[in-house]
């Protein structure tokens, strides 16, 4: 068996706010979104070979009743392997980092 990709699904308090960070500071593009009653509840974003899913806690719990969560977040660290990262250091200096 050959594994071809790993896509992380991050539970977030604001899909729009998370998308803004990944778009503005890391250059991700939106592949898909799912609107809810009070804004986006899900988005899939991509840059190069990296794909990330962003989902609200309420949406996650609705989709996964057997493993519901009390709060968003967790102990997940994302490490990006970046070419020429030193050239982009100033771009990454933001309130988010």
Strand content: 25-35%
Strand order of the largest sheet: 1-4-3-2
Q: Main beta sheet: strand number and arrangement?
A: 4 strands, mixed
| Helix and strand run | EHEEEH
Please identify the oligomeric state.
single chain
Number of helices: 2
Backbone structural class: alpha+beta
Tell the overall outline: globular
Give the overall pLDDT as a whole number.
Answer: 82
Secondary structure: helix percent: 10-25%
Task: Calculate the terminal CA-CA distance, rounded to whole Å.
Answer: 37 Å
Uncertain runs: none
User: How many strands appear in the DSSP assignment?
Assistant: 4
| Rg for CA atoms | 15 Å
Question: In words, what does this structure look like?
Answer:
The radius of gyration is 15 Å and the shape is globular. The longest helix has 12 residues. By secondary structure, it is of the alpha+beta class. A hairpin with a 2-residue loop joins strand 2 and strand 3. Strands 1-4-3-2 form a four-stranded mixed β-sheet. The chain is built from two helices and four strands; from the N terminus they run βαβββα.
Blueprint of the fold:
Layout: E1 8-12, H1 15-26, E2 29-36, E3 39-47, E4 50-56, H2 57-63
List its salient traits.
globular, 2 helices, alpha+beta, four-stranded mixed sheet, 97 residues, single chain
